[in-house]
Structure prediction request, 238 residues.
Amino acid sequence: MVPRQTDDSPLPILPDVLVAAIVLTAAAGGLQQGLGLPAGVLPLALAAYAALALWVWRLIGNRALTPADRVTMGRGLLVMLLIGLLPAAGTGPRVAMLPFALALAAFLLDGVDGWVARRLDCQTAAGARFDMELDAVLLLVLTVWLLRLDLAGAWVLAIGAWRYVFILAGYWRPALRRPLPPSQRRRVICGVQTGALVVLLAPDFPAGWVAPLAAVLLILLSYSFIVDLVAQWRPADP
Prediction:
């Protein structure tokens, strides 16, 4: 499938995609070799990146990335590294700090792309969507890490899966596909989710507190999504 453009050439976006691929290959390959990580780290990171790059091409279309988009792509590389490192979960103390450090960097960079977009006057709807969807992927990846480290049960994946369940429900109930109105409640709860999950991944965080706190996060997020479900359930007035 090709982007929704009249010109189907990917050349404008290609330099950004290739540079990002080189950076990711160097980072994932360097970590794999330097720390003696499992052989699947680099292939998994690159496979995840290939999916990301294809999705970005379809979203952005046939134009070069803006400076704000490039910041978001940089965050995306951190998330792809987090995905690639999943086979190394629990392999030793040298790896223990990596998921926390990468997740913290990705979290702290959230919002920088928006600032750059406003500062350089390069805001686009596609760029905002790119940022939002990457936030959702990061949330899901963080819950997978908690599961892989045996810090919480499989139920913790529901935190990351809630958004995708909402999207799938929209195919059954078209009213759920309507754009959601801006909501401070939604922004605060979603921001708290990511920040708190990053903290739960900290190597020195008490393991016994992780599951109870993750359960509180799931309750908060479920409340937010249920509020939106109820609000969107009825078809829009003609």
